Amino acid sequence: MDAVVLLSGGLDSYTAAAIAKSDGFVLNALTIDYGQRHVREVEAARAVARALGVARHQELHVDLRGIGGSSLTSDVDVPRDRDLSATDIPSTYVPARNTIFLSLALGWAEVLAARDLVIGVNALDYSGYPDCRPEFIEAFEALAGVATRAGVEGARFRVHTPLIRLTKAEIIREGLRLGVDYGLTTSCYDPGPDGAPCGSCDSCLLRAKGFAEAGAADPVITN
Hints:
The chain has one domain: 3-Layer(aba) Sandwich (Rossmann fold), CATH 3.40.50. Helices cover 39% and strands 11% of the residues. It is built from 8 helices and 5 strands, in the order βαβαβαβααβααα. It has helices spanning 11-22, 40-52, 97-112, 134-147, 149-152, 168-177, 202-214, 219-222; strands at residues 2-6, 26-33, 56-61, 116-118, 158-160. Strands 3-2-1-4-5 form a 5-stranded parallel sheet, with helices on both faces. The longest helix has 16 residues, at 97-112.
């Protein structure tokens, strides 16, 4: 059974894809270069796709820098050492990013006659992005049913979010159980020229917190 999985090269998307593979899905990976400053994640996604043995790996270029509105797609500084318990939505939020990404995944799924999409969103240890919540996923599934030929002809699309209610530590433990090589991944929003993580953006802080609580060493830091 085919599934289209959004693969960013990050820890969460790799784990979500590994879970889908363990559930018996044939993986068709979609990676999107959207003009993000941390474009190194596209290179990581290639390595992750090889490790997963995906059936297909599609890379699309959709430059969101023209829209802006995010420190990931502009020259605005990425927030550092932010309080992870803060309730405000940080500048690293990319307007409508997951809506755009899932729409592209939906289009490819319809072409492949696949009815399952996989995305590594998480609503617990995350930065408060509105498009990582269950309400968004449910709404997108409803949209898929009325926005596609397959949907109006009776097909039902499902968006799988195996990580959505897990802590980062639980995600890491599950990935390690499945043999995920986190040394292939990158999480940093603003890595150095050599790809080294900054250690202080939200994504780095959440990753460090997750590995510490999982009682595991982060291979990206220890290698």
